[in-house]
Every structure is written in C-alpha cells, then in structure tokens.
C-alpha cells in the first residue's frame, strides 16, 4: 500500500456551513494537540480512549504521509476543527481509525464528512475495512458509524465495543451520501433563495445601470424582507436608503447582490464575507483568472454560496419571499415551474415563453459562469421546496455529471425535468485513436446521461416550451398510439406523417370503433385513422368524436388539427370550442394543431379550469407528444440496479495496470498478451490465439489452432497499430502451412522491422459482427458503446451508449437501441443471438471500466454473436496514469 496525495476541497456540513477538507501533515502538530487538549469529555469523544490520545495523534500526524497511513483535517477560517486518521498496523487490508471533532462542532456532520473522504482514500490504497474501538456508552460515535451507510458489525466486550466497517460501496451507501449532501445543500441555499434581508451594491444613482434595475425589481416585486443599498455617496437610490459602506449597514443581510466592475468584485466579496453575509449574487461580468480566484477565495473562506458571476439574477416567487433580484424587464408570475439557465438570453426567452403560456415560476436562477451553484443544486432545491412540480434547465457544461445524473434520476421520478441539449453541432473528439473514441461524441455522451436520468432533452427553446405546455396541461399518455382527427383530409395526413416521423404510431382503428364514430359524424366522414370529420362537422359532433376517442382506449392520445373553413364561418360553428368544452377530466391527453394560429403554442382554457395546448404546426405538436410518451415509458419502468458480476479478479486487473504503468509511465496501448490477460480478469470471452514471433512459430501456431476445416487468420502487430483492415495488416482464410508462410512473408515484406510479431487465430464461425467498447470521458466518466461492428462500424455509425456502471435496464437499452438490433432477435428467420451472453459481456465491460479509471479506451471489434454465445475476435485497450475522484463524495465545485 502506498501513500496517496489528496487535494484540498471545500464541502458543506449538515447545517450548510462550509469547511475545508485537506490532508493533515507535520505542520499540524500543534493544532492537533490543541484540538485534543481543548476538547471536553476526552474519554467519550474519541475512538482512541487512552489519556495519551493527544500526544499519540500529534506524533502520528507529525510523521507525515506514509504507506499504510493517511490523515485528513477539517478546518474553518483557518482553525482545525476535526481530524480523521487510518493506519494499517499489521499486514492486511484492515486499518485502525480515530476521529476527533472540536467542541462546538459536534452534531454538524464533521466526523461523517471526514470518514467519507477517509474511506475513499483508503479504498484507493487497497484498504477494505476500518476497525475502531469505543465505549459502549459513546452513542454519538456509534451513531456516526451507523449513519455512514456502510456495513458495520459490532462486538461488545464489557464496557467497550469493537466496530468493523466494510468499505465496499453499494446503493445503500450512495443513497446515504446523497441524502446527507441533499440536506446540507438545501440548507446552504436558504440565504440565496429565501433571504430575510438583501443588499445591492453597484446600483448607480442614474437610471440605466444593471444594479439599479435589480434594486428596482426587488422593490417593485413585493419582496417581503428588508432591502438595503450600498453606495459611497449614500443618499437614496430607487427609493432605498443607501449606506456608505458594508460596515455601515444596520444588520447583516443574508444575500448580497454585487453589480460593481469586475476589478472590484473580489474586494467587495471579502467585505461581505467578513461581515457575515451567507450568500452572493454576482451579476458582474468579465472577471479575469486572478479576479475569479479572489471571488472564490472569499466565498470559500467565509462559507458564502455564490450564484454567477455574469448572470441575469435570481427570483423566488413564494408568497413569503417574493424576491425578484433580476434585471429582467418583467416580474415572473408565481407558479410551479423551476428554471435554471447558464445563458441570460436563454433565461429571458424562457421566462417570456412561460409568461405567454401563463405558466408561473416557482424560482428562477441564472447560473452564469457557474462558479459555485449549479444545476445539481437547483434540482435538489426544487425537490425540497414544496412548490415546484416541473424543472427546466439550460446547461452548457457539467461540473460533476455523474452526481448530476444520480440527482436527476431521483428528481425526475417526482417531476418532469426538461433541458435544451445545447452544442449538438460540436464536431467532437473524432480522433482516430479508436473506434470507441470516434463513436463517443460529446452529443452521444450527453444524450446517454439524459436518457438514463429520465431527463427530457429537446433541441430548441421552442421545443422545450412546446413540451412544457403539454406536460403542464394534460396527463401523460400511456403509450405512443395517436388518434388523429381533422376537418380537412390533407391536414390530417400531414399530422399523421408528423406523428410517424416523431416515433409515434397512428394505428388503424377497430371496426366497432369506426362504426361508432361514423354514427356520430356527418355523411362522407372517414374514421380509419386519421379520422376525417369533413368540413361539414359541427361543434357537437366534433365534441362527441373527441370524447369517444379519449375514453375508448384504442389510442393513447388524441391530436386534433383544425383549419378555418367557409362552412364553419357560414354556420357560426366554433370548432375550437369543441376542444375546450369536452366534458372532463379526460383520461387521455388531447392536443390541437391550429395552422391559422399566430403563436407557436398556446394554452386554451377549458370549462373545467384546465387547458388544452394548441400548436401552429403538427411537427411541433408531435415532437412534444413524443417527449411526453417517452417520459411515461421511463416512469413505467421500475428502477433497476447494477448487478453483481461474478468471477471477476479486480485485484489482479489493478496489478496488471500498475505493472504496465510502471514500465510505461506515459501510458499507451497494451500488447496482445496484456490485453488478453486484462479481459480474462473480467471473464470476457475471447477467441483462442497464439503469439508468433517468426514464420516457423506462425506455422506451428496455425497447426495448433486450426479449426475443424483447418483455416486460420493471421494479424500483424506493432505498438500503435489500431485499424488492421485499413492498413491491410491481416490475412484471412489461410488453409495450409504454405499459405501461412506466404502470408507471414507478405506482412514482413510490407511492414519490415516495424512489425514485432503476429497473432494467429482459428477462422471464426459465422455470426453477427458487433462492436462493444469503453471510453473514459474526462468529465462524464466511463461510457460503454455498443452497436454494429466490423470494418464499417464508423461508416454506418450504428451505435448506442450509456454511462457506466450499467444497470440491467441500461444493458437492455443498449441491446435494443441500435438499428441492427433486429439481427440479435432472429431477423428474417435467422437464429437469435445468445442475449444472455451479450448482457454479460456488457456488464463485464462496465465493471472493468468502473474498476479501472486508467482504462481510457477499449475496442472489442468485432464481437461475434451467435446462438451459442459471443466471442471477441479482436481487442485493443489503452491505459494512461489517472486517479478518478469519487463523484458522489461531498464537495463543492
């Protein structure tokens, strides 16, 4: 076991306080002594119950980091408030631990936070369990262990209890970490979104400044708290008394809005931090690296949460708050939609669109440059605020996407989470390093995150608002079947085409239903789907038709497209009123397409105080309906877990990787022997093969490996060779020794000394050629890619991807999403592939990627799938030095 270095991080305690967690070392000797000596009830406070605890702990820390020992410190405003250590005292993988927390800091989560991070460091060092002794009456210590979420066993021996904590992570542990983080996060956000007092600095005395606009919006928006302004010339600004300095304020506000020039931001933040302000909203833009560092330094030193910089502001419409600290032109109306955006322009567009739809906002936060508060913070806030029932996000970047995904997956069970998938046109990382890297574009990675988390990802702001309108107004459809109703045959056909293009189904209606519909409609109507009610239909007939279709069950949704006709105008019929006066509540969603409508989407009020969404274009309506159907499908699927993969040698795999990096510090592509050994650690099936250094060894290998028909394959190898087919570095269907010799001589002639040897394999049997691979994204973590394989894998680009670790549902989606998936299920009478073996292959790849952060690329291509199993015919793996941080540990950005 080797010592490890851990970078300092800031994290939240359970009461929302920010502390700094760092590695402890020799310089902390005196602070450790002080921590122990100032702590009351020494006998109960520490796992180490000896009176010499202070001296022993100080001596251990003074020795510094070393193999088998690690110490972490928690500090607040430069003062040590907690210490956690582990030490492996005998050969093995169990370490003794001790934890100390300063008086005044108990029951705030210091010990738990330190133990979470200590456990992460221990796992990296190969420690599998913690051991500790405590007095049985020390209920606080025992509760800390219990609440970690790790498996704890206790052995009582008189007045003492011996505790063993297993460090293996599972869903129970991640849920416990997540729950603690959620509580701390929401508490820390209170000063931002529910401040009892707010101050604005940078509001100019003349109209036109951003700060003045924010101050005016706070005052005119009905803010229930106290509001102050700071201005060096004092006086009054926008009717608010201005104080000359922060020190002159009559009380410490919870929230400070900073709208000063970039060069002054850090200094102002420092002043507010010293005064005790708990949250900052910085709308100032243009901070350079030094200024940004000063701002963040002040926020972390004084425990202030930060929105911005370079943002539009924030709003909370709750009755007991009514804070509009934005410079938007209009106050958002109160409601239940939570909105968070990185772009101020997108924020204004969303707020305007929601206002036109009369969908109110619970809270709005413009994240700006997102130095601190992120989309993850906002999801947790909306989950807990008791007001929000729909979340809308625009995120241009992800700080911790795996934590975001886990949070979104939980929140999306309770409310729709919508986003705009920004940046789809990015060329992506199409480096020729591997098929996997070429396939795994940033767009594919983001889409994998959104799909797994149940996030509704739209292409544009308009599409997001279209979908939000339908989700706000109507129930979710139970499936994808749509009944299309129109008073003009051509419009109905276009609507049906739009539904089909969006992935919906327009089924033929049953004979009984057709007869019943025709009995309601005018002469000449057709009811096969689309239902053409003709231009002669009147309001009552249309209403009866819609009511029947929504209650029958032949379709999961009803889309009604209506065009103005002279017939309706002459008779005074209001067909749109048939939509809004159908007796409700309706069991299935109804939406309208009104081509004559000026607005892209409107919400039409109904008699029962609900609304019907009306779109000007059938394509917009169909896409919105497809999004809601996808959400219904996601909700209908019970959450699945990551299965336990058996017969895996994780320790041996890590040793193989470490050995390779010892000899290749910069990393690189594993040779065939190392690749096969690593795959074998995870039970990934491979075709037999033999390494041959020269022609005679190649002939001998062919004789050993020849299949029932005697045919073999020969592949050249040299470090860096990736795509053998493109370089014509292989020979297929070699049937005898002379052909093997000729093939080897050809490879030597063409590639010379560059070639270090050849791989000889038996010619594989027939089957479906597939591709499976892994790529480690620097931000998103490991991504598993699956699809059609062979030489055309990149040309056809028939791939699906999911972020690891894969659940059972993730694997099901990988197998069914590519266009080639029918080949796996017995297409056109061909034998189906062994789906169980394919599932195992993907789970084992996922486990390998999750275990080994150093694995940056893995290409298994082709993977041959048949009725009797799967076999990897060729594989490439790249390893680089890397230590991945646990994405779920409590830490601030």
Give an overview of the whole structure.
Helix content is 36%, strand content 23%. The strands form six sheets. It has an eight-stranded mixed sheet, sandwiched between helices. Strands 11-12-10-9-13-14-15 form a seven-stranded mixed sheet, with helices on both faces. Strands 17-16-19-18-20-21-22 form a seven-stranded mixed sheet, with helices on both faces. Helix 15 packs across helix 21 (618-636). The radius of gyration is 32 Å and the shape is flat. It starts with 8 loop residues before the first strand and ends in a 14-residue tail after the last strand.
Query: Major beta sheet, specifics?
Result: 8 strands, mixed
The structure class reads alpha/beta
Q: Portion of residues in helices?
A: 25-40%
Distance between the termini: 29 Å
**Unreliable residue runs:** 43-49, 425-436
**Helical segment count:** 28
Average pLDDT, rounded to a whole number, is: 90
Beta-strand fraction estimate = 15-25%
Which descriptor suits the 3D outline?
A: flat
Q: Strands of the biggest beta sheet: in what spatial order?
A: 1-2-3-4-5-6-8-7
What would you report as the Rg, rounded to the nearest angstrom?
A: 32 Å
Number of strands: 39
Summarize this structure as a short list of keywords or feature phrases:
28 helices, alpha/beta, 39 strands, 893 residues, flat, 36% helix, single chain
Tell me the layout of helices and strands:
Layout: E1 9-12, E2 18-23, H1 29-37, H2 42-45, H3 53-62, E3 69-76, E4 79-87, E5 94-101, H4 110-124, E6 129-135, H5 139-147, E7 152-157, E8 160-166, H6 171-193, E9 197-201, H7 210-220, E10 226-230, E11 236-237, E12 240-243, E13 255-258, H8 262-275, E14 279-282, H9 289-302, E15 305-307, E16 313-316, E17 323-326, E18 334-341, H10 344-356, E19 361-366, H11 375-384, E20 390-394, H12 401-411, E21 417-420, H13 435-439, H14 442-453, E22 456-458, H15 461-473, E23 482-486, H16 489-501, H17 511-520, E24 531-532, H18 539-552, E25 557-561, H19 566-571, H20 575-580, E26 590-593, E27 601-605, E28 611-615, H21 618-636, H22 650-663, E29 668-669, H23 672-681, E30 690-692, H24 695-705, E31 712-717, E32 730-734, H25 737-751, E33 757-762, E34 768-777, E35 781-788, H26 793-796, E36 799-803, H27 808-816, H28 835-851, E37 855-866, E38 869-872, E39 875-879
Helix pairs in contact: 1-3, 6-11, 8-9, 11-12, 12-14, 15-21, 16-21, 22-23, 24-25, 27-28
